[in-house]
Amino acid sequence: MRAEAKLGFILLLSPLVVWLSLLILIPHIDMLLVSLRERVGVGEYRISLANYLTFINEPLYLRTFIRTAMMSILATTITLLIAFPVSYYIAKIARGRVQSALFLLCLVPFWVSELVRTFGWMILLRETGIISNLLQALGLVDGPVELLYNDAAIMVGLVYTSMLFMVVPLVTTLESLPDEVIEAGYDLGGNGISVLREIIIPHATPGIVSGCIVVFMLSLGNYLTPIMLGGKDSLWFTELIYSQFIVRFNWELGAAFGFLLLGLSSFIVWGMLKLTGQSLEKTMG
Amino acid sequence: MIPTIPQPRALSLAYTAYIIAFFVFLALPLVVVAVFAFNDSQFPSLPWEGFTWNWFFGSERPMIGVFHERPILRAIGTSCFVAILVSLLSVAVGTSNAFLFNRYRFRGQGLLYVFMLLPLVIPGIVLGISILVFSSRVANGLWDMAQWDWEALRPGLLLVILGQFSFIATIATLVIGARLQKFDRSLEEAAMNLGANRLTAVRTITIPYLAPAMIGAFVVAFLMSFENFNTTLMLVGSDAPLTIAMFDRLKEGSTPLLNAVSLLLMIGSSLLALVMIAFQRRS
């Protein structure tokens, strides 16, 4: 019996180990090694920090990196601000059928490819698009207006794309808050704002954290939205990675960029977990 | 602010208006994409030139519909092939992982569990390039050692499948693991008391209990694979899945053909999601 259990254990453990080592651990170590080498001749390499120095010394790279991080943080904040009232409505105010219908409606857009969603925004925002025509019909503007190809368009796209990943964790945590607790808050003399600040938000913290982590990560790693909705000047860091790998074939620099992106996203995720005293198992699992 | 606490009328009206505005915001891009699939024009934009089915069924230039557009049909086939393999693989590994974490206590378990979650917090594009770098190193190594050029390790469908699997497996593990956690193990023991061995008990009792979660995980994995873009972009070879094929067309400029494909995608994925929900309700 013990031998059988041991065999079962090994059989169950091996797919996990093969998956995590061959597809996650070793490729990332390899990527780190590639990012730490410098080409000195045909097929000759030496270990150096040259790629990381290039990143620091080239203003375009550093600026794009910081810009991507800042815009992702902004997108996360906006998504949270928009999603919180909606999640609260679904979790606490809507009842029965309306509640489940609204929740399902939130999910529907996200079963559709990100490409389709971005395409929809292009049709809406472009010069010959719906919004431009609507503004002209209302007499608010004289000629066609180009709303596409700028940072605001990227922001709209990012917020739209990540909405689901904020609403679902928020609804789940808010639903677990009993109505009586909120009533007690009012009975003890609280008003709307103090109840929100002292009861609702502290209770929703785990949901807020996991929503923010996922949204931030998705925004940081997004490629499609910035490239389709953004203009010539609105570079995103993932575009740099893509062009180093596929266009310029400079894998060393591309790997360094990849590592920097991974480092930034891990740092922010870790920081958010530490700041709020949560753990990865609880927020993701 | 809950229904039992009275609120000023103006405030609750404003709140309702906000919720309506939010859902309009959610629906708008999708509705627009769907409507312009029927525009009798070369461009998916205003003015409205009249209603047509040509972007679906048209067979003559300049309006070749989806069902006569070979490259798009082939890309849909490629996407389905990739998605089915990724889902099968993810559900198999996910079930195994779920049993491992549920049934065994071992040293380093917590650490391994956190490690298993990591693919979810690695940006998709980084997963893509790390697998690209590693696989080409292995391919080069094979060439240097044995003059053996293993094509499958160059960008192409195998790498796309592995790349998507590398993070979808985590999701499958979480979905199946959540249901296994609720399973009452005394049922398995009862089966064993009645003479079944452990394997039979798991096969006849536990796996049927897990089936809804396994099907759910399969559908989720299928949809995630079908719409994956970032990881696929870095690993794709000459056979482009649908998202990549559509992206290439969109860069060149769009015709309502893309709207027609998108509408079909929306219908397909909503049907799949509805089937899954109906199935979960019943069991």
Automatic annotation (TrEMBL), chain A:
| Membrane topology, from the record | Multi-pass membrane protein
Q: InterPro entries annotated for this entry?
A: MetI-like, MetI-like_sf
Q: Which GO terms describe its biological process?
A: transmembrane transport
Q: Which organism is it from?
A: Aliiruegeria haliotis
UniProt-recorded name of the protein: Spermidine/putrescine transport system permease protein
Please list the residue ranges annotated as the ABC transmembrane type-1 domain: 65-270
Compartment(s): Cell membrane
Ranges annotated as spanning the membrane: 7-29, 69-90, 102-124, 152-171, 207-229, 249-273
Q: Which family does it belong to?
A: Belongs to the binding-protein-dependent transport system permease family. CysTW subfamily.
Give UniProt keywords alphabetically: Cell membrane, Membrane, Transmembrane, Transmembrane helix, Transport
Q: Which domain of life is it from?
A: Bacteria
Q: What is its main location?
A: membrane
An annotated GO cellular component: plasma membrane
Automatic annotation (TrEMBL), chain B:
Q: So where does this one cross the membrane?
A: 12-38, 72-100, 112-136, 156-180, 201-226, 257-279
Q: Which domain of life is it from?
A: Bacteria
In which compartments does the protein localize?
A: Cell membrane
**SUPFAM superfamilies tied to this protein:** MetI-like
Alphabetized InterPro entries for the sequence: Bact_Polyamine_Transport (IPR051789), MetI-like (IPR000515), MetI-like_sf (IPR035906)
Q: What is its main location?
A: membrane
Q: Where is the ABC transmembrane type-1 domain?
A: 76-276
Identify its membrane topology class.
Multi-pass membrane protein
List keywords of the entry alphabetically: Cell membrane, Membrane, Transmembrane, Transmembrane helix, Transport
Q: Does the keyword DNA-binding apply?
A: no
Q: Which GO terms describe its cellular component?
A: plasma membrane
Which Gene Ontology BP annotations are present?
A: transmembrane transport
Q: Which family does it belong to?
A: Belongs to the binding-protein-dependent transport system permease family. CysTW subfamily.
Name under which the protein is recorded: Spermidine/putrescine transport system permease protein
Q: Organism source for this protein?
A: Aliiruegeria haliotis
